[in-house]
Amino acid sequence: MHGPMTSGWLLMALCAATGAYCLLRMGSCSGDAREDAGGEALMGFGMAAMAVPAAVLTLPSWHWVVYAVVFGAAALRAIRALRARRHRHHLVACLTMVYMAAAMAGPGGAHASHTRPGVPLLTAALVVYFAVYVLRAGLRLVPVAAPAGSPGPAAPSWGAPPELALACRVSMGTAMLVMLLTL
């Protein structure tokens, strides 16, 4: 991604920390939750790698193809999960990563992508999608008072608080939004 180096480092750190937490969360989950945590870890680490400031590390021109292949495979896996009516957002996020990799791999990189017809419209649609996703997920983090006399929630294990998993999704959605805006 291009832009100020400080924001690139901060975005990279946020995504890497989110990916690391999702890997830790995989250890305390099972079944579908474990699979979701693994997908989120992949997304976090992939976004962290994509956010490394270009002035720091010069990668070969084919590295965007690797991103597209990895996230294309993750999108195929998300399609399988779609049949089980789980997380359409994973599919959209994976396809967005493929789109960003393709835009960056094109001639001239991201700046040239804005001169091709239809690309700014798709970018704008994805920006709106991720903005709505972040706002909706963020609203679910707002605490709701429990009715008087009801027992409090059971203390979950270190890696299992649903609020923390949701906060990770908010941070990754926000990072995706920033990456799309700098595309």
| Overall 3D shape | globular
The helix fraction, in percent, is over 70%
Query: What's the helix-strand series?
Result: HHHHHHH
Name the beta content range: under 5%
What gyration radius follows from the Cα positions, in whole Å?
18 Å
Spans of at least 5 consecutive residues whose pLDDT stays below 50 are 110-114
Number of helices: 7
Number of strands: 0
Instruction: Give the CA-CA distance, first to last residue.
Output: 7 Å
What is the residue-averaged pLDDT?
81
Sheet having the most strands: none
| Count of discrete domains | 1
Structural class: mainly alpha
Structural description of this entry:
- With 183 residues, the protein is an all-alpha fold.
- The chain has one domain (5-142, 158-181).
- The protein has helices spanning 5-28, 32-51, 63-83, 88-105, 109-113, 119-140, 162-181.
- The longest helix has 24 residues, at 5-28.
Summarize the SSE layout with pairings.
Layout: H1 5-28, H2 32-51, H3 63-83, H4 88-105, H5 109-113, H6 119-140, H7 162-181
